[in-house]
Amino acid sequence: MVELFRIVGGARLAGNVTVTGAKNSVLKLMAAALLAEGRTVLTSAPQILDVVIMGEVLRRLGCMVTMDGGTVAIDCPERLGSEADYDLVRRMRASICVLGPLLARTGEAKVALPGGDNIGSRGLDLHIAGLTRLGAEVTSEHGFIIARAGKLTGASVWLDFPSVGATEQILMAGVLAKGTTVIDNAAREPEIVDICTLLGEMGAQIFGAGTSTIEIDGVEGLHPATHETLPDRIVAGTWAIAAVMTRGDVTVRGAQARHLEITLDKLVTAGATVEPLLGSTGFRVAMESRPRAVDVVTLPYPGFPSDLLPMAIALGAVSDGASMVTENVFDSRFMFVNELTRLGGDVRTDGHHAVVRGRERLSGAPVRATDIRAGAGLVLAGLCADGSTEISDVSHIDRGYPDFVANLRGLSADIERVEVPELDFPLEF
Fold first, then answer.
1. pTM higher than 0.85, yes or no?
2. What is residue 119's predicted lDDT score, i.e. its pLDDT?
3. 218 three-class SS
4. Of 50, 117, 194, 249, catalytic
5. Which domains does the chain have, with CATH numbers?
6. Is the pLDDT score of 147 beyond 70?
7. 117 annotated active-site
């Protein structure tokens, strides 16, 4: 049996939805727990498959990991293992983030080359170059990255691109290095600030989080801490775009509007009303008429997030007019466009540009989720399609969106998770 999402389009989303902790943050926070012996507790963790996978990665390194609702407790032993196996790492690219902490704590690390979403070539060159600058010897053998260092030493590291993963990797290695590490052209995402906050609570000395230059003064050791995970701005942005596409009225609670300034500004340009919530975190997005087409260019933070590009294209597919969507972060984000065209989307791609000509309504059809964000974008398109849409490979969506079907049903969407036979005819020769 395989699971599908079955959607009957036409519903207007309305009501309240609450955002939990960020997938793109909590996985790195879990890896950072490796830096200190003892129990680190993370609250507001999203209940998604990727958290379960990362928990198993840590268990195999010797940690005891318990999960209770949105709380993840990680008991890190004095002596850690140093090898992260392929069977888990291949399922989630973020597993590579254990490389830096393991190297800093144990002096060696052997981590399988990662898998994860198929959204383009995301090489580890910047990760390796940064760790090498700190004194590590890094090689690649038999599908593993192997790093060794007697004692890491602080250094100046210039990143050719403000890579989130490389910034996090160097941060987690640098906090236990001897001397000072400076990361220039560092990523500025809120998730970087979140991991710096946790490391600071654990006793690290970090300056400049959220700017393009981060300075780390190495310390001899860290202690465990309790930390609340940052709200997921990508999930919040998905709900905001869904409200506009369905001409709905959705209040997104628990989100930080300041982390989505450009995204929400685009929705205002499209004709939506966006209001902050008074006295609490979150915002309300309301739309009365068909959205106007808006151009989107993805960039590292504080630019428009690449993770919201599929939703931006889905928005363009039902907007009035034509929009240009440009992807500057990943080279294969447009892979899902073929699936969107099955729903009637008029999208033409050329290199890292896509021209989207909006239609009043899309048309339901069977489609396949190719990655987490593409799957969410197809769900939003299905909400605006005539008839029924069936989305397969929904395990991708489960990796990034907790209780996605339940939340959509709570907003009046006609969607259900169904099981169907994997094959409905025998394959015989």
1. yes
2. 37
3. coil
4. 117
5. 2-19+231-420 (3.65.10.10), 23-224 (3.65.10.10)
6. yes
7. yes
